[in-house]
Amino acid sequence: MELRKDPITRSWVVIGQPKTDELERELCPFCPGHESDQKLILAEPPGADWQVRVLPHEWPLYRIEGEVGRRADGIYDRMGAVGAHEVIVEARDHDTRLSQLSDEQLETVLHIYGERILDLKRDLRFKYVSIAKDQGPLSGSDWTHSHSQVTATTFVPRRILYELRASRAWYQEKERCVFCDIVHQEEKQGRRMVDTHGEYVALCPYASRVPYETWILKRKHNHLFESPKTGSNRRHLASLLGRILRRVEKVAEGYHLVLHTAPNTASTKGDLADYWTTIADDYHWHIEILPLLASRPKSYSLKEIYLNPLEPEQAAERLRAIDPGP
Q1: Which of 5, 82, 95, 232 is most buried by a 10 A CB count?
Q2: What stretches of 261-320 adopt beta strand conformation (E)?
């Protein structure tokens, strides 16, 4: 496994095939009873009555061991696939979805998200820590047991780079956070708002990439999900996230969920070495949920342009009308 950089898009690509277990498992490795077979990173609560467990990925894309070894290959750049790849098992029961957890249980999952980001950022080799979740047969998920994946990389992913640069440009021109501006305008207009709870809002973005795309943001500015500011109530966030996921599950076959937080500002080398003086003011953590519909327009894969047949205003109206249940 190695990383190669595309000189045009400046994105890093993992090259190689992860080592996998070719024997099909009859039993889920994440269900209770298999704890002794696994190397445990973290459990909450500790012991046999765990609710959430964090484990190394069985077939990691990135490995802690080794040297980054960034080097030239003619005009190109390559380096070792150094990093971290973990699995967060979100529930004990195999068939329990994230949306079915209680607010308290969901708050624990969100707490573990933050703990893993904080811990992995202590390794100054890692420039970014991603949290992502895939659900449903269309998502390409590795296992059916509800889980999220954590990756720590020696580079900042391209999508995050785009957000960071756009946020910096907005702040340089207006001296305001673009995400805060979005929240203020969307709440004022109301047309694309889906739900709110406490200091958190859920909305369909103005230029949604797919039908029913939903973002969850905090009203008050904060660039670091893993470091909630005084007064933040993660139970409110958990409640809102659960309600949104239950709505999404009624209109889609599955979804991709990604948590966007600021990069590791203690690691100042690379593309964003000159950026860190304003990042706390111009970036804003958020959660992006991209539903997966059984029939999707052929757009991005062919044209590099998103085509969304459903206006976000209509999507938000339909999602608002859905009873998310308890």
Answers
A1: 82
A2: 286-292
Query: pLDDT, tens digit, for every residue of 210-262?
Result: 999 999 999 999 999 999 988 789 999 999 999 999 999 999 989 999 999 99
Please say whether the beta carbons of 319 and 194 come within 8 A.
yes
Identify the CATH number of the domain in which residue 253 sits. Answer: 3.30.428.10
Query: CA angle, 233 as apex, 228 and 235 as ends, to 5°?
Result: 120
Number of domains in the chain: 1
pLDDT tens per residue across span 87-130: 999 999 999 999 999 999 999 999 999 999 999 999 999 999 99
Let me know if 21 is exposed, middle or buried by CB neighbors in 10 A (0-12, 13-18, 19+): exposed
Domain range for 4 is: 1-326
On whether the CB atoms of residues 220 and 199 are closer than 8 A, the answer is yes
In sequence order, what are the beta bridge partners of 82?
Answer: 63
Sheet strand arrangement including 2-5: 12-15, 2-5, 76-80, 71-73
Burial 107-124 (b: 16+ CB within 10 A, else e): bbbbbbbbbbbebbbebe
